[in-house]
Specification:
By secondary structure, this protein is an alpha+beta fold. The protein has 24 helices and six strands. A hairpin with a 2-residue loop joins strand 5 and strand 6.
Length: 477
């Protein structure tokens, strides 16, 4: 069943001030339908204002688009409203004793005229919720909530990984994904010839790219700064760079045309970071900073990401350093509240007056672990990852380390993986019937490529992707 166009038209004519007789004549002329004067008079009474009156600015219904899939963002309700209303008419015959169609026509007209308030929004979300319940549809977590639930299980891992990615060199992906792909292909060796520069300037004009932004990008002597920095941080994470590691770094720096002074800065920063990273992950203030970052990253709040690039100077065991962390946490939290207020789809959160980041998560129904529980989980997780060097082969790709270890485990799959930060441990089962077929170097390279691809996801989709590929390999005969 669809919204009756004649009923909507009657409501519009009433709003325009036409008399019952004039409306009756107009409907007959446009739709060839004879309406009784009494039926038109009944439609002059709108119950919508009474129905929306109970909803407050902190109504739980306003959180539904944040919490669940299937509820339109408040920015885009108007775009999908008529389709939504057609579904509601089919499913819900009466709203608080009033014919659904009459109520929804009134609601539709309010939205079309741009006069909707949070009360109208909340009322619509209540009806959508009722529709889902009556049709026995399961309420599924929204993409953002689902992603955060995965990330808070190992927040420091995601923080160190994502903060590096988000502070990467200037990107054109928002200006034009096509041009962003072109420029990355041309510049991936970090050397730009005159012909390449001319080509990029021509393409930039074609895709309407800001010439000043392009010049800033091309004038950078090392375009892959952050990608290479992740690689250096991984090498330096034990706080020591051995002669062998130094030789390997120098080879890669030469291959990617990294200027020597930038390389030295990266190594120094990597060693410094490694020395106090462990202490940081035991600091309550830093834990809150991480939670603020993950929330901001999920909802694309760029002001937080930019502030995180400011350097905190000091040592992890220094009182002044602790004060800096506390000050940074307060600054970031206030910035987050301000940014959330400016996002239509999120501003309902601030009506609950959260006083810390834990309350932010609580409002969107995500339970946060205590820092001590995170530390216990990480300690437990690290134990099985101790390498048996005789059975391990180590590979480096895009700043990640992959360790393939040959194990013997009856009834286990051919291979599986565990990830910790920038390390992925891939276990190849020697007792599996297909082991001999897949134990060669070529297959190990495929496993590394598969592992790297799985790490490109910011949520648990990467793990699902890896496991699905594993299952397909098992099925091949």
């Amino acid at each position: 069943m669809k919204l009756s166009p004649h009923n909507k038209h009657i409501k519009k004519l009433i709003e325009q001030g036409l008399s019952d007789r004039e409306i009756q004549t107009e409907i007959k002329k446009v739709f060839n339908i004879s309406f009784k004067i009494s039926d038109i008079q009944n439609k002059r009474t709108s119950e919508l204002n009474d129905l929306i009156k109970p909803f407050r600015s902190d109504a739980i219904e306003l959180l539904y688009p944040i919490l669940h899939k299937g509820f339109p963002d408040r920015n885009f309700i108007k775009d999908k409203l008529e389709q939504i209303i057609n579904y509601l008419i089919d499913a819900i015959k009466v709203v608080e004793g009033f014919p659904t169609e009459d109520v929804l026509i009134d609601l539709l007209l309010v939205f079309e005229e741009g006069l909707n308030t949070y009360k109208h929004d909340a009322f619509l979300y209540r009806l959508i919720y009722q529709y889902k319940k009556e049709n026995k549809q399961e309420l599924e977590d929204s993409r953002a909530v689902k992603q955060l639930k995965v990330q808070i299980k190992n927040p420091f891992k995601y923080y160190f990984s994502l903060s590096n990615i988000n502070m990467e060199h200037l990107s054109f992906i928002e200006d034009s994904p096509e041009f962003d792909h072109i420029i990355k292909e041309v510049c991936r060796d970090n050397v730009i010839t005159k012909k390449e520069r001319a080509y990029l300037e021509e393409k930039a004009a074609e895709y309407f790219i800001d010439p000043d932004k392009l010049k800033m990008y091309l004038d950078n002597p090392f375009l892959g700064h952050e990608t290479f920095k992740m690689f250096i941080d991984q090498i330096c994470e034990d706080g020591v760079v051995t002669d062998t590691e130094r030789q390997y770094i120098n080879e890669k720096a030469s291959q990617y045309n990294v200027p020597s002074y930038i390389l030295e800065e990266m190594i120094s920063a990597g060693i410094l970071r490694a020395k106090f990273a462990e202490d940081l992950t035991q600091d309550d203030n830093f834990y809150e900073i991480v939670l603020i970052f993950l929330f901001a990253n999920t909802y694309n709040i760029k002001s937080i990401q930019q502030k995180l690039s400011d350097v905190i100077i000091g040592k992890a065991d220094n009182i002044e350093f602790t004060k800096q962390l506390e000050s940074k946490k307060i600054e970031l939290f206030n910035l987050l509240k301000e940014a959330v207020s400016e996002k239509t789809e999120l501003k309902t959160i601030n009506t609950f007056k959260p006083t810390n980041i834990f309350e932010f998560y609580s409002i969107i129904s995500i339970e946060i672990l205590e820092l001590s529980d995170i530390q216990q989980t990480n300690t437990t997780f690290k134990e099985p990852l101790k390498d048996n060097k005789e059975n391990c082969e180590t590979y480096h790709l895009d700043g990640y380390t992959f360790v393939i270890e040959t194990v013997k485990q009856d009834l286990a799959p051919l291979f599986w993986a565990k990830t910790e930060g920038l390390h992925q441990y891939i276990y190849l089962n020697e007792t599996h019937p297909k082991y001999k077929l897949y134990s060669n170097d070529s297959f190990k390279q495929v496993l590394i490529a598969l592992g790297r691809s799985s790490l490109s996801f910011s949520d648990n989709s990467g793990e699902l992707f890896f496991n699905r590929m594993k299952n397909y390999v098992e099925l091949i005969k």
